[in-house]
Amino acid sequence: MYPVNIKLMNKKTYHHGNLEEALLTVGMKEAKASGFRNLGVTHLAKMVGVTPMAVYRHFPSGENLKAAISQQAREELARRMLEALENEEDVKRKFMATGREYIRFGLEEPGLFAVAFIDCDASPQREDNPSARAILHDAILDLCNEGLVKPAELESVANFAWSIVHGFAMLASGNNPFRPEISPSVIENLLERSWLGVTQFSK
Amino acid sequence: MYPVNIKLMNKKTYHHGNLEEALLTVGMKEAKASGFRNLGVTHLAKMVGVTPMAVYRHFPSGENLKAAISQQAREELARRMLEALENEEDVKRKFMATGREYIRFGLEEPGLFAVAFIDCDASPQREDNPSARAILHDAILDLCNEGLVKPAELESVANFAWSIVHGFAMLASGNNPFRPEISPSVIENLLERSWLGVTQFSK
DNA sequence: GTTTGATGTTGACGGGATACACATGAGCCT
DNA sequence: AGGCTCATGTGTATCCCGTCAACATCAAAC
Question: What sequence ranges are listed for the domain HTH tetR-type (chains A, B) (predicted)?
Answer without folding.
Answer: 17-77
